[in-house]
Amino acid sequence: MANLGEIYLNGEGVAVDRELGISWLTKAAERGQNDAQYLLGQGLITNQQQAAGEQWIKKSAEAGNKKAIQYLTEHQ
């Protein structure tokens, strides 16, 4: 789910479909996949949903995701 979401979010081999990408990432993130939580947070921030995006990134950081931790360190 996370991989599929990332593919659509970034347009890797398919047309970019941010809505579909966020949908797949949300499914994975809600199941506790911390990479998906981070990617979902990034996708939401890109879609001008700053607060929701930061919440997912914080959740990912709490689970130990290094990219999420770095993001929070740089943006606080």
TrEMBL record:
Which top-level group of life is the source organism from?
A: Bacteria
InterPro entries per the record? Answer: Sel1-like, TPR-like_helical_dom_sf
State the SMART domains in the record. SEL1
Spell out the Pfam families in the cross-references. Answer: Sel1
User: What name does this protein carry?
Assistant: Sel1 repeat family protein
